[in-house]
Amino acid sequence: MPSFIEDYAVIGNCETLALVGRDGSVDWLGFPRFDSAACFAALLGDPRNGRWLIAPIAGGARTTRRYRGDTLVLETTFETETGAACVIDFMSRRDGVSDLVRIVRGIRGTVAMQTELAVRFEYGAVVPWVSREDDGRLEFIAGPDRLLLDTTVPLRGVDFRTVGEFNIKEKDEVCFTLSRALSYGPTPAPFHAVDALAEADDFWSTWAKQFDATGEWSAAVLRSLLTLKALSHRDTGGIVAAGTTSLPEKIGGARNWDYRFCWLRDATFTLYALLGAGFLAEARAWRQWLLRAIAGSPDDLQIMYGIGGERRLVEFEVPWLPGYEGSAPVRIGNAAAGQLQLDVYGEVLDALYIARRAGLEANDASWSLECALIEHLAKIWDQPDDGIWEVRGGRKHFTHSKVMAWVAFDRAVRSIDEFGMEGPIDRWRAIRDSIHEQVCEQGFDHEQNSFVQSYGLPRLTPVCC
Which of 196, 215, 401, 453 is within CB 3.0–4.6 Å of 342 for a Cys-Cys bond? Predict the structure, then answer.
């Protein structure tokens, strides 16, 4: 049984992320990217589907948690009748290798600790072959996947799990590192966990220093910004909507989607937050990602792409996982990539406009792309689409989609007015006005005195479940 969602904390390295429960169990992790097949999938099943527990042997420990300063380094403190110990969890990256690092430090007295590692590749389906390297590290291999576990704690195999016990005393320190590498590639060298901790602290705190931490809610805002940063990919510039798949919209329901992809809409919302806080580098990297991802004909614009700009996000179900609290099916991939959602044109044009206003330098390729998107939207804005809610119930004239089409033309017009960009401003302004007139005529219900979900229907909100 997984923990409650609110009992998980996120750690990551801007390539992938893991979820760590209050009980000291890492219940979700995919290597090496956000959208990679998980090697720990207990979040969507149980410990048999893969997890890594480090916690006191005795039950009933009092648990407190915090992030170290303005970082994504997590500290979980366990207090027992015999003492207290802290587990420091974080992720690092070195020469293309991702590492999950766990450091156990004694605070007072002596605490009897346990570790239980169950590696299950391919979303909990594949049990790896385990062997010991000449340097003492344990190797877990199945097909192309390989993990290397480095620790001084004596470990043994029990029922396809790797387990061990150790005592941690005041001022003692025990380190565990789990490194991912291709089974047919070179073996990553061992590394010093404490040095990696210092590097992780420096990476996150240096990034956070760009934020003007003034105001009553600045601490909460910065913590949210750090989480959004963790969802950006440091190499590609893509921004994923989430680091997990199939967490249900409603417990027991079937709307369990894979969100480990780059929705244009969700990415722009993230950019709004980052730009508003003064983070321009992420907007610059995302703009380059966008130029690569949607390169080609504007007719082929998708609502989402893979982290590297991949277009084929084939959706399938994983029947051996029961789903979070029994919420089935568990899905991998997302068929909504093939939907037409007119609102994404508005979000993309607005994000680029906001970035321009925030001081992001001009880019001819970006404006050429915007012009191509606007010209294509001019041909299709009056057509029905699938809408923002992805109800998979047939295309309609969704009011929200039309409003966001208006936003696209409005931001194109403003870019010409305010920044001297070149384009057919009179024609774009006329289309903008036509959309406004249509929405007010067909998307507004005078009896309810409100805008409606789609033209001709009195419903205000979609029926999703």
Answer: 401
Residue type, 299: D
Asked which of 11-25, 103-117, 231-245, 263-277 is least confident by mean pLDDT, the reply is 263-277
290/283 Cα distance (integer angstroms): 10
Q: Which two tokens stand for residue 221?
A: 């805002």
Are 9 and 74 within 8 A, CB to CB?
Answer: yes
Measured CA distances, 276 to 93, 214, 270, 282 (Å): 28, 14, 10, 12
Q: Please, what are the domains in the chain?
A: 5-207 (2.70.98.10), 215-451 (1.50.10.10)
Largest CA distance in the chain: 78
CB atoms within 10 A of CB 148: 21
What mean pLDDT is predicted for residues 17-21?
A: 98
Full-prediction pTM beyond 0.85? yes
Let me know: does 49 contact 120? Beta carbons within 8 Å: yes
The CA distances from residue 446 to 319, 450, 454, 458, 461, in Å, are 48, 7, 14, 10, 16
